[in-house]
C-alpha cells in the first residue's frame, strides 16, 4: 500500500514519498523480509540518504544512490520470494523518484560551483590548463569553477576520486595524455572508458626530442645513426617507468629499431637537470618544461613529435619530416565526467567548453605551453581515448613496460 502511495505522488512531493519508502523499509525489517545487515545498509543508502539530500536542496546527489540500487540485486538471491518482491518494489520506486527529481533539477544546471579535479601537482601543465579553462568556463556557465589537485606518481588517484563522484555535472576530471597509458601499466579501480562521460578534448601539442649539446648529432637522423653504431651506449631519461614520456620514447625506439638505455627519474625536473649536465644524452620533453632550456642553449632540439612544427621553434622539423613518417605522438588534455551524466548536462558542458576554447586569449595563453585549443564533440574525444589505449597497451606488451 505504501509503495502505491509513494509512486503516485507528484515530483513536488518527493520528500514525502521517500519518507513513505523509508517507513516501508522499516516495516520489512521488522517483519523479517530483510535479514542481511549489508542489504539493510544498501536500502538505507538508497532511501534514507536521498530523502536527506532532497531536504538539503541537493537533488543531484540522488544519482549516486542508483549505483547502490543496482548492487543490491546481488544480495537478494538468498531471500524468500516474497521478500525479493517487496525489496524490488521498494527499490524501483526509489529509483523512479530519484530519476524524476533529477530530471526536474537538470534544467537549473548549474546551480552551484563546478569542480575540476586534476591528477597532478599544482603549478604543472595539467593544473595550468585546468585553471585557464576554469576562468572562461565559469563565465560561460554563470557559476564559479574551482580546480582541485590530487597529485600522485601515476595520476590515478585524482581520476579515481573524480570518476566515483555523483554524475551530476558538479565534479569533472581533467585527463592528460597519461590517462591512456595507465590502463596498460597499472591495475585500476575504474574502467577508463566505461566509467566516464566524455565532454571534449581541450588541447594538443608536441613533445620535443632534445639532446645534450655535446652529443655528436645535428639532426634526428644523425642521432639514430649514432645509436645504431653504438647500441646501448646512449641513455634517455623519463619521469619514471610507465610515464607518458617513457612510452613516447619507447615508441620512438621501437619505430626506429635503435637501442638506447632508459633511465627512470622521479619527476621531470631531475630528468632535465641530468640531461643538461650530460649524465643522460636524450630526452623527450613537454614544451613547457623543455623549451626554456632549448632557448638558452642548454639543450639542443632535434624534432617535435606532432605532424606540424611548433610555432616557437619554426626551424625544428617534425619527426615525420626528419625521415620517420610513421611516428607521430600528441600531448593533450581533455575533460570528462563520471559515467551516467545526463545528456542535457553533457551537452551544456560541451557547448560551454567549446565556446570557452574559442575565446582569443585562450590560444595565446596555451601557446606558452606549446599547446593549441581543440574542442569538438564528445564522440571525437572518446575515439581518441580508445585509439590511444589500444596503441599504448600493445606497445607496453611488446616492450615489456611495467610500473615501478
Order of helices and strands: HHHHHEHEHEEEHEHEHEHEEHHEH
The biggest beta sheet, please? 6 strands, mixed
- Tell me what the CATH architecture of the largest domain is: 3-Layer(aba) Sandwich
Number of strands: 11
**CATH-defined topology of the largest domain:** D-Maltodextrin-Binding Protein, domain 2
Oligomerization category of the chains in this entry: single chain
**Shape estimate:** globular
Output mean pLDDT.
82
How many structural domains in the coordinates?
A: 3
Radius of gyration: 26 Å
Question: What's the CATH H-level homologous superfamily of the largest domain?
Answer: Bordetella uptake gene, domain 1
CATH class of the largest domain: Alpha Beta
**Helical run tally:** 14
Strand content: 5-15%
Strand order of the largest sheet: 2-1-3-10-4-11
Amino acid at each position: 500500500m505504501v509503495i502505491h502511495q509513494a509512486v503516485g505522488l507528484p515530483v513536488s512531493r518527493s520528500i514525502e514519498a521517500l519518507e513513505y519508502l523509508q517507513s516501508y523499509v522499516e516495516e520489512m525489517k521488522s517483519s523479517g523480509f530483510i535479514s542481511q545487515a549489508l542489504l539493510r545498509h544498501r536500502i538505507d543508502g538508497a532511501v534514507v540518504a536521498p530523502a536527506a539530500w532532497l531536504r538539503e536542496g541537493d537533488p543531484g546527489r540522488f544519482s549516486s544512490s542508483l549505483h547502490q540500487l543496482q548492487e543490491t540485486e546481488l544480495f537478494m538471491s538468498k531471500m524468500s520470494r516474497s521478500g525479493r518482491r517487496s525489496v524490488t518494489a521498494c527499490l524501483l520506486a526509489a529509483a523512479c523518484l530519484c530519476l524524476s527529481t533529477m530530471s526536474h533539477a537538470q534544467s537549473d544546471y548549474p546551480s552551484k560551483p563546478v569542480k575540476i579535479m586534476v591528477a597532478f601537482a599544482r603549478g604543472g601543465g595539467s593544473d595550468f590548463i585546468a585553471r585557464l579553462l576554469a576562468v572562461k568556463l565559469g563565465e560561460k556557465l554563470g557559476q564559479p569553477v574551482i580546480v582541485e589537485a590530487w597529485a600522485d606518481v601515476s595520476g590515478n588517484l585524482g581520476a579515481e576520486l573524480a570518476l566515483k563522484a555523483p554524475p551530476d555535472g558538479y565534479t569533472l576530471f581533467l585527463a592528460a595524455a597519461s590517462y591512456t597509458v595507465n590502463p596498460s601499466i597499472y591495475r585500476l579501480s575504474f574502467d577508463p572508458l566505461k566509467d566516464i562521460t566524455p565532454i571534449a578534448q581541450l588541447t594538443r601539442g608536441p613533445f620535443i626530442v632534445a639532446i645534450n649539446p655535446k652529443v655528436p648529432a645535428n639532426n634526428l637522423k644523425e642521432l639514430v645513426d649514432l645509436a645504431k653504431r653504438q647500441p646501448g651506449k646512449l641513455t634517455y631519461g623519463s619521469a619514471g617507468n610507465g610515464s607518458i614520456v617513457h612510452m613516447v620514447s619507447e615508441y620512438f625506439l621501437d619505430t626506429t629499431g635503435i637501442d638506447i638505455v632508459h633511465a627512470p627519474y622521479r619527476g621531470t625536473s631531475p630528468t632535465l637537470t641530468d640531461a643538461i649536465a650530460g649524465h643522460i644524452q636524450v630526452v623527450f620533453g613537454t614544451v613547457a618544461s623543455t623549451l626554456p632550456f632549448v632557448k638558452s642553449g642548454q639543450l639542443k632540439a632535434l624534432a617535435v613529435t606532432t605532424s606540424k612544427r611548433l610555432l616557437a621553434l619554426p626551424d625544428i622539423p617534425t619527426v615525420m619530416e626528419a625521415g620517420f613518417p610513421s611516428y607521430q605522438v600528441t600531448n593533450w588534455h581533455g575533460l570528462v565526467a563520471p559515467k551516467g551524466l545526463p545528456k542535457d548536462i553533457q551537452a551544456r558542458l560541451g557547448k560551454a567548453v567549446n565556446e570557452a576554447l574559442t575565446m582569443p586569449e585562450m590560444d595565446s595563453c596555451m601557446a606558452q605551453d606549446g599547446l593549441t585549443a581543440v574542442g569538438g564533440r564528445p564522440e571525437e574525444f572518446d575515439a581518441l581515448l580508445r585509439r590511444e589505449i589500444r596503441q599504448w597497451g600493445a606497445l607496453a606488451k611488446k616492450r615489456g613496460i611495467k610500473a615501478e
